[in-house]
Amino acid sequence: MAFRKNPRTLLLKTTALAAVAAFIQGCAQTPAQQPPSEATIAAHVAAATRDAGTDLAPLLALCKPAPAAQPPQAELDKGLRALIDKPAPPPGKAFDNLYFVGADWVSAWAIKTSDGIILIDALNNQMEAAALIEGGMRRLGLDPAQIKYVVVTHGHGDHYGGAPYLAQKYRARVVMSEADWTMTETKLEFATPVWGAPPKRGAGDMSVKDGDRLTLGDTTVTLYITPGHTMGTISPVFDVTADGQKHRAMLWGGTAFNFGKNVPRLGSYIDATRRMGTVAEAQKIDVLVSNHSGYDGSQGKLAALRQQPAGAANPFVIGTPAVSRALNVMGECAQAQRDRFVLQ
Ligand SMILES: [Zn+2]
Questions:
Q1: pLDDT tens across 217-229, in order?
Q2: What protein residues have CB closer than 5 angstroms to ion ligand 1?
Q3: Ligand 1 midpoint to CA 54 (Å)
Q4: Which whole-number Å values give the CA distances from 127 to 103, 179, 210, in the listed order?
Q5: Could you tell me the distance, in angstroms and rounded to a whole number, from the CA of residue 123 to the centre of ligand 1?
Q6: Among the CATH numbers 3.40.50.10490, 1.10.760.10, 3.50.50.60, 3.60.15.10, which is that of 73-328?
Q7: What is the model's pTM?
Q8: Where are the domains of the chain?
Q9: What's the CA gap between 33 and 339, in Å, rounded?
């Protein structure tokens, strides 16, 4: 029969069968202990797909095969320019004390405290920092002159590009991990003229270690180092309130596997997702946000918040089980990618 003669169909059927078999095996025993194979890759993708459900489906983009090498410079510049050229969404208030002041593809978040503002990430360049961070804050009734700290989640220019401008203008202190300070001071992982220059470490700037706490007024942000996306990626954890009700939020500081074929780094990423899964359970973290809205759906959630009546459930509150599932999805996709690289 034509159906059976089609080799692509057969291949798909075989892969699907292998996936099912591996999935069943994976339920009983973690596939991480098995030697990498097409079956272990399929099992990790199946586990990620199961954990993602429909609510976390955007995270499954991570399960697509990642490139083994960085793109050529011209391609990188062109791709970034196209992303930056997309019209920005309106700024928005996610919680009583957490505000989105981002671009279309990369986010910046402002945490309002009783003694000023902690800004998390600074977008691609000075122009965006002026238009979207300063402009967005003003539209939301926040004063950019109150920015006391700029936490740069990691040393890629879509997060630090606007930092020097804001730091200088408002005497804000730049906060980065030592690993990523060193990376930006020595050899940039991604260098492109599209981004603003990295911040120069000044006397007031801070190098943070895993678990360091940044306190401003009534707010303490715990800075976890979650290595992988870069080796010094910071994932801040802090309290937010919605209609006076307290929740605990984690901002995952670096998501994509865009560093090329690097198996140990994926190992670090996997460990970081597991470790933060434990932290999420222990601290009952029920809000997970990202610095790229493609992963956390923040633009859609902000749009929903704008339209819903006061007192309705905040869509950013997803619950601790969903936060755990999200970390599992990222960890399983990282395991699939590690196995792919090992087999290459
Ligand atoms: Zn990055």
A1: 999 999 999 999 9
A2: 156
A3: 25
A4: 11, 27, 32
A5: 11
A6: 3.60.15.10
A7: 0.90
A8: 2-63, 73-328
A9: 11
